[in-house]
Amino acid sequence: MTVLERTRLIAGSEPSRTLRYLPGSVLAVDVVALAVTALLATLGRERLTIFSRAWGAHEELGVVATIAIVAWIGIIAVAGGYRRDLFGSGSDEFKRVVNASLVTAGVLGVGCYLAKYDFSRGFFLLAFAIGPLLLLLGRFSARKALHALRRRGFLQARVLVAGSARRVDEVTQVLRREKWLGYSVLGAVTPAVEPLEETATGVPVLGDKENVVEIGRAHGADIIFFAGGTSTSAAEMNQHLWALEGHGIDVVVAPSLQEVSQQRLSLRPIGGLPLIHVDQPTWVSAGRIGKRIFDVVGSFLLILALSPILLVAATQIFLHDRGPLLFKHYRIGRNGKRFGCLKFRTMVVNAEAMVKDLQVETGQQALLFKLKNDPRVTKPGHWLRRFSVDELPQLLNVLRGDMSLVGPRPQVQGEVDLYQGAMERRLLVRPGMTGLWQVSGRNDLTPEEAMRLDVYYVDNWSMMQDISILLRTFTAVTSSRGAY
Question: b/e string for 352-391 if b means 16 or more Cβ within 10 A?
Answer without folding.
Answer: eeeeeeeeeeeeeeebbbeeeebebbbebbeebbebbbbb
